[in-house]
Design a protein that fits this description.
The protein is α/β, with parallel strands linked by helices. The chain is 42% helix and 15% strand. A hairpin with a 4-residue loop joins strand 13 and strand 14 (404-405). The structure holds zinc ion.
Length: 465
């Protein structure tokens, strides 16, 4: 009798523990993973957007990502330097491997390393890669490509065609051209059953399971910034399209990498107003994923981080001391990149464009004099540099990773920085910390201090087995 009771108790215990472990197992597995990477989004970039949101937009809520229960930090150094480039940083965030700057999806010995996207794909996850950058650039490429140098865009695209991911989206593919001539990439994608579509309209017509979505304008010469209101694929539109596509393909679990690439571009340009608008834009996409989380709270993990800091951005400068005047960015209607294109057009056209016309442009598009204080010394300096760099084309250009800025543009935005209180140490990346925000299944793994290679490792721990 006693033995019988013992046996039944043991059986009941086994059944109960199996049941409980099954509940725990289900509750602790992230079936829907959103990995959001703000390219170049350091602590100051996020904080500038947060401060603007609070002091200028008068929004009492923190940015969505800052409301997540886990808010921590991440180091970004590569195997070759305390200051990483995007290829080594992307490789770290995608594969949990430190590599040398410039290398993509390979360790320092040029051995290919597998990304978590590929691993999750092999576990039955649908995979989506979305960026406002070119889809063969470093961060997206780190999730599907293995090349010793990130400039090998044709090879990156070929590996993208072969990777079998459901959805890859970006502004364009650099690999479509080599030395100015079209490559055979359209055939390579077609051979691998991947349809390359341009624009959301074309995507709607597509019946393919594997899609590369690009913008409808193949090679625009001006970047798409929120502040410039240039029509084009937005990060939100691509993210929504990706989620629809993964659902259409019948996936009951998926992994999405979503990169806000414009933040880095504006960081290289040292363009604070554009950065703030891009971080707010990126945060809107975080909200999109958060709304999905609210529908699937026991199955969803959202991680928000950055690959590195860009620009050495600082909140506060010697002009304003303990003040910030971010409301002046409210008057900025043109990105620094677009403004230098405008200036270059004036220089190249040789047309007579007077200083008074430029004064009107700066008043209308940057709020100078009318809203943004520009003292007499700065006005005199602006007119002097205008005459030198624009009227006589004798200025000294500033070269950055993505753009060459004429001297007048540099002077204009330097005066805007003085007025707002934003400061910079570099036109390149820096070794500064980046934020990590997390919510959902497994989010607690990201508390405390992280190195960038910890992030994908912890995502894999949280994923469904
Ligand atoms: Zn980057």
């Amino acid at each position: 009798m006693f033995n019988n009771i013992m046996t039944r108790s043991i059986y009941l215990g086994i059944i109960l523990s199996a049941f409980v472990s099954n509940i725990n197992c289900t509750a602790q597995e992230a079936k829907y993973i959103f990995y959001l990477i703000g390219d170049g989004m350091g602590m100051a970039h996020a904080m500038a957007a947060e401060a603007y949101n609070r002091t200028v937009a008068h929004n009492d809520s923190h940015l969505r990502m800052m409301q997540f229960p886990v808010a921590s930090q991440c180091t970004t150094h590569s195997a070759s330097s305390p200051v990483t480039d995007s290829a080594a940083a992307g490789t770290a965030l995608a594969t949990a491997t430190k590599t040398r700057n410039g290398m993509l999806g390979m360790n320092p010995d040029t051995i290919a390393v597998t990304s978590i996207a590929t691993q999750l794909q092999q576990s039955g996850y649908g995979i989506g890669i979305v960026t406002t950058e070119d889809a063969d650039d470093a961060t997206p490429g780190a999730f599907y490509a293995h090349v010793p140098n990130r400039s090998m865009t044709y090879e990156i695209c070929c590996q993208g065609a072969e990777c079998g991911f459901d959805f890859i989206a970006g502004r364009n593919l650099r690999g479509l051209k080599r030395n100015g001539k079209p490559t055979d990439l359209p055939d390579v994608f077609a051979r691998n059953g991947v349809e390359v579509v341009r624009g959301l309209g074309a995507l709607k017509e597509s019946k393919s399971r594997k899609v590369v979505l690009l913008d409808s304008i193949p090679f625009p010469d001006v970047w798409y910034y929120t502040i410039d209101s240039v029509p084009g694929l937005t990060l939100a539109a691509m993210t929504g399209a990706c989620m629809d596509h993964l659902k259409k393909n019948g996936h009951d679990k998926w992994f999405m990498m979503i990169e806000g690439g414009n933040i880095d571009h504006a960081g290289h340009a040292n363009d604070g107003g554009t950065i703030i608008k891009e971080v707010l834009n990126f945060d809107d996409v975080v909200t999109m994923t958060y709304n999905f989380y609210l529908q699937h709270p026991d199955e969803t993990l959202i991680i928000v981080t950055a690959d590195h800091e860009t620009g050495g951005m600082g909140l506060g400068n010697n002009s304003l001391g303990y003040n910030l005047q971010l409301q002046h960015y409210d008057r900025q209607k043109v990105s620094k990149e677009r403004f230098t294109v405008y200036c270059r057009e004036i220089i190249n056209s040789g047309r007579n464009y007077s200083w008074q016309q430029m004064v009107q442009y700066l008043t209308d598009n940057l709020g100078f004099w009318k809203y943004v204080p520009v003292n007499d010394n700065d006005t005199a300096e602006l007119e002097r540099i205008y005459d030198k760099a624009i009227t006589h084309n004798e200025g000294t250009d500033t070269h950055t990773l993505y753009k060459t800025f004429d001297q007048f543009t540099e002077t204009v935005y330097h005066i805007l920085d003085k007025a707002t209180g934003i400061n910079w140490t570099s036109h390149a990346h820096t070794g500064g910390l980046v934020p990590v925000y997390a919510i959902g299944v497994g989010a607690e793994k990201f508390t405390g201090f992280n190195d960038n290679i910890d992030i994908p490792t912890k995502i894999m721990e949280a994923a469904a087995k």
